[in-house]
Write a structure and sequence with these properties.
The structure holds two protein chains of two kinds. Chain A is α/β, with parallel strands linked by helices. Helices cover about 35% and strands about 30% of the residues of chain A. Chain A has two domains: about 210 residues, P-loop containing nucleotide triphosphate hydrolases (Rossmann fold), CATH 3.40.50; about 70 residues, Alpha-Beta Plaits (2-Layer Sandwich). Chain A has eleven helices and 13 strands. In chain A, the strands form three sheets. In chain A, strands 5-6-7-3-8-9 form a six-stranded mixed sheet, with helices on both faces. Chain A has a four-stranded antiparallel sheet with strand order 11-12-10-13. In chain A, strands 2-1-4 form a three-stranded antiparallel sheet, with helices on one face. In chain A, a hairpin with a 2-residue loop joins β1 and β2. The mean pLDDT of chain A is about 90. In chain B, α17 packs antiparallel against α18. A two-stranded antiparallel ribbon of chain B has the order 1-2. Chain B is mainly α. Chain B contains 23 helices and two strands. The chains are: A alpha/beta, B mainly alpha. The interface between A and B is large, with 39 and 33 residues.
Chain lengths: ~300, ~550
């Protein structure tokens, strides 16, 4: 087997403290070249702090961070040549029009692809002639998105980029992600919109309180989660006796319960010995997966 | 009513540091002036000398105000009132704009406006807060004077005069906050209104009529068009009367009421200057960090330059009046020569030098404001957007720094050129033009030092940058304007860079001092760069 290529973004035991408060407590994150990597976690988990460290806007207290194999604090200008960034809360210069802000940001990165820029403005149905102070949140977000996508980058770092977009614009956004992925670019996408993550991301890292609690493909993560089973024609006590079964409840004339991933084969085998009249097995929903991680007590 | 009280408490809480600093600062300044006058001019004969000198010199009248009798209180009021009233005005305008248009622009007013309270209630709370702040200020100023041993009645009237001036400007700011689309714009216009009030009073006072014994000056009618003039008219320590303050309070109430009516009738975010469509592509200049820095500072720079030019033109226009006053009064010239030995210098030149000193402060203020914009860009998240592109921090810092340095030069040149033009038209000597423009530029090195120190603050103490940056400027101003009067020790006065700049055309240009100032500024720029490179971006 050939050695795996070095990850494009990698942090190891990354720690960031602000005075006495600790934002990151030993975060490990690894994003491979060419993948769309979902970056998830509850509010205040440290997603934006991580992104700022990766951009060299703030310096890690300890641990290491590398982007393109470079130290983002020391070589921030160099790595920024190949990065397109959309912040979570886009703030623009009140006196500049949206078009002027887009031009400024793309020129600082080396100049936009004019045709691409025009297409993006058109697709996002954006009016570039208005002063930025009159734009709504969604329109400010569009400025940052258009500026990010109007010039090809090796790495796109997007911090909740579709917040504030309407469903139609969100679809435009997803098409852009698919386009840059097809071009071989890498995307680090922080998001709360689960359908977006499910549709776009190859791999996902979930962080909570400054540490990564889960990382892998969605399939991997589902595997770690419980399977939901609904069965009819069975007595509750019989089910409750099986190993790995949790949370048994009666719904209408059936029973519903959750089964730990490793116990699923045994439980299915056990069920087959009973006169079951109805059976439904569902993989864990992404919602239940995230809710478990988000709400779990520290 | 409960909503009103709640908002008032919230707004007061937000200002719990800013307002006490303003109020205590203004009161301490008043107290210090009082103590200085009492110690330096303890004898009536000494006071008579300075008052007679001032009464006959329109330049002093223009800068300071109206002499009105020989008591210690009268001298204190003459020396300090106009300046104190300007500070009270700035405190009030910033207060009102902070809670009105600035909040509206940032979307906070929308949040408050969605709760079940009347549309004008937040403004009502702000005006009430301004009223309370000025009442406390009046009490503090009065208390300072009384502590300094001045008569109680006069002290109370003087305090009330300061507070009333503050209230009028609070009303002015409330109206401007309705009319202008941004907090910045409203603050700028309101600050300019305070400056205009000072200038109008200055011209009126300079054109005033001295009494035959030169112990008091009756202002020209023009002074009655300035709220600061109304405060002076109370004659606090001579024949105290509150009557002029009735005018102040009436105007303040009328302006506040009008603002409330406008607020009730207008839409949220509406202003007299609605946004028009702009260009859809950036021009060439808008495609670089330097271009952005220039674009962001352009309007403010034009305003500063116009302010400096107006000041210079008015002061220059008064120069012949100054010269005439002296020519008419041969005994006065002898008196000046006796009182201020060694002032062989042309009195017009002394006056001009004082004006150009103010030009230096204005230039520094323009530069400081440009540098402070870095901090605003950082707190409002735009620095993050900019620095995530391949733009290094140093390029960002030095682009803005260059614009700040250019601002300093432009304001110096504008003021010097306007002063020179005004004087040259009256003297008919075109050489005055170049001479005075150069004289104004002599203050640029000191101003640039202040600008560079502000940049160091931005690099090293980002969270305190804005407060300390303006603080530096105020310190330099107070040391420069009151250092002599307060008899501050030489070393303390010499802390201000302006102490080292040459007051042309009275003094010779001290080239070595200028070079050292520029070197200090460059060292400051390097220090700022090193500090900025080492720190996190902090909001």
């Amino acid at each position: 087997m050939s050695p795996a290529p070095a990850p494009l973004v990698e942090t190891t035991s990354l720690v960031k403290r602000f005075g006495r408060a600790t934002a990151l407590e030993g975060l490990d994150l690894s994003v491979a070249e060419g993948e769309v990597h979902g970056f998830l976690g509850p509010n205040g988990a440290g997603k934006s702090t991580t992104i700022r460290v990766l951009l060299g806007l703030i310096r890690a207290t300890s641990g290491s961070a590398q982007v393109f194999g470079l130290d983002p604090w020391r070589d921030s200008v160099r790595i920024h040549r190949d990065i397109a960034y959309v912040p979570g809360d886009v703030s623009l210069w009140p006196g500049l029009t949206g078009g002027e802000a887009i031009d400024l940001l793309t020129f600082l990165r080396g100049g936009a692809d004019a045709a691409l820029c025009a297409t993006l403005i058109d697709e996002f149905e954006f009016d570039p002639r208005k002063k930025a102070r009159t734009y709504s949140k969604g329109n400010r977000q569009k400025v940052a998105l258009i500026a990010a996508f109007a010039r090809p980058a090796r790495l796109y770092i997007l911090d909740e980029p579709s917040s504030g977009l309407d469903p139609v614009m969100e679809a435009v956004f997803r098409r852009q992600i698919e386009r840059v992925r097809a071009d071989g670019a890498t995307v680090l996408l922080s998001s709360h919109i689960l359908s977006e993550v499910e549709e776009l991301c190859d791999r996902v890292t979930i962080i909570r309180s400054g540490v990564a609690v889960e990382s892998g493909t969605l399939g991997d993560l589902r595997h770690l989660s419980r399977t939901s089973i609904r069965v009819a024609g069975l007595d509750a006590s019989a089910v409750a006796a099986m190993a790995g079964v949790n949370d048994v409840r009666t719904v209408a004339d059936a029973l519903e319960f959750e089964v730990d991933a490793e116990a699923v084969p045994a439980v299915l085998a056990a069920l087959s010995t009973h006169p079951v009249t109805g059976l439904r097995v569902a993989p864990a929903s992404l919602e239940s997966l995230f809710l478990r991680h988000y709400s779990e007590a520290k | 009513m409960r909503g009103f009280c709640r908002l008032l408490v919230t707004q007061a809480r937000r200002d719990r540091w800013v307002l006490p600093i303003w109020i205590v600062g203004i009161a301490v300044l008043g107290l210090a002036v009082g103590a200085a006058v009492a110690s330096q001019f303890g004898e009536e004969a000494q006071r008579a000398a300075i008052i007679v000198l001032a009464s006959a010199n329109p330049a002093v009248l223009f800068l300071r105000g109206l002499p009105d009798g020989l008591s210690v209180g009268a001298v204190v009021f003459f020396q300090g009132f106009a300046f104190t009233a300007v500070l009270a005005g700035l405190m009030s305008t910033f207060l009102v704009v902070r809670h009105t248009r600035a909040d509206e622009e940032l979307g906070r007013s929308e949040l408050v406006g969605a709760t079940p309270i009347g549309r004008a209630v937040p403004l009502m709370a702000t005006l009430t807060l301004a009223l309370l702040a000025n009442v406390v200020l009046a009490a503090a100023v009065s208390g300072g004077y009384i502590l300094g041993g001045l008569p109680v009645e006069g002290s109370l009237v003087a305090g009330a005069s300061v507070g009333s001036a503050g209230l009028v400007f609070a009303g002015v700011a409330a109206i401007l906050a309705q009319a202008l689309p941004s907090g910045r714009g409203a603050n700028g216009a309101a600050g300019a209104a305070v400056g205009v009030a000072y200038l109008v009073r200055g011209i009126g006072d300079a054109l005033g009529t001295p009494s035959s014994d030169l112990t008091r000056v009756t202002p020209a009618a023009l002074s009655w068009f300035s709220p600061i003039g109304w405060g002076q008219a109370t004659r606090a320590f001579t024949e105290p009367t509150l009557l002029p303050l009735v005018l102040s309070l009436t105007v303040a109430v009328a302006l506040g009421g009008a603002a409330l009516v406008i607020r009730t009738r207008r839409d949220l975010d509406a202003s007299l200057f609605p946004e028009r469509a702009g260009r859809s592509r950036a021009r060439l200049g808008g495609r670089s960090v330097l271009g952005l820095a220039w674009r962001l500072q352009r309007t403010a720079l034009i305003a500063w330059a116009i302010g400096g030019a107006v000041l210079g033109a008015i002061a220059g226009g008064l120069a012949p009046v100054v010269a005439q006053a002296l020519a008419d009064n041969a005994s006065l010239s002898q008196l000046i020569a006796r009182l201020v030995p060694g002032t062989a210098a042309d009195t017009v030149d002394i006056f001009t030098a004082a004006i150009l000193g103010i030009a230096g402060i204005l230039a520094a203020a323009a530069g400081v404001q440009a540098v402070l914009r870095l901090r605003t860009e950082e707190t409002e998240g735009r620095a993050e957007l900019l620095l995530a592109t391949p733009t290094g921090r140093l390029r960002w810092l030095f682009s803005t720094g260059s614009v700040a340095a250019i601002s300093v030069l432009v304001v110096c040149i504008a003021t010097g050129f306007a002063t020179g033009t005004a004087i040259a038209t009256t003297t008919g000597d075109a050489a005055d033009l170049g001479r005075l423009t150069g004289a104004a530029l002599a203050h640029a090195p000191a101003a640039i030092v202040i600008v560079a120190l502000t940049a160091v603050l931005f690099g090293a103490l980002p969270r305190a940058t804005i407060a300390l940056g303006w603080g530096l400027l105020v310190l330099a101003l107070v040391l420069g304007q009151f250092g002599e009067l307060l008899q501050l020790p030489e070393w303390l006065q010499s802390v201000s860079p302006f102490y080292w700049s040459s007051a042309l055309p009275v003094e010779q240009l001290d080239v070595a001092a200028a070079v050292i100032l520029v070197a200090i500024a460059l060292a400051g720029a390097v220090g700022a760069a090193l500090a900025l490179r080492r720190r996190d971006l902090v909001s």
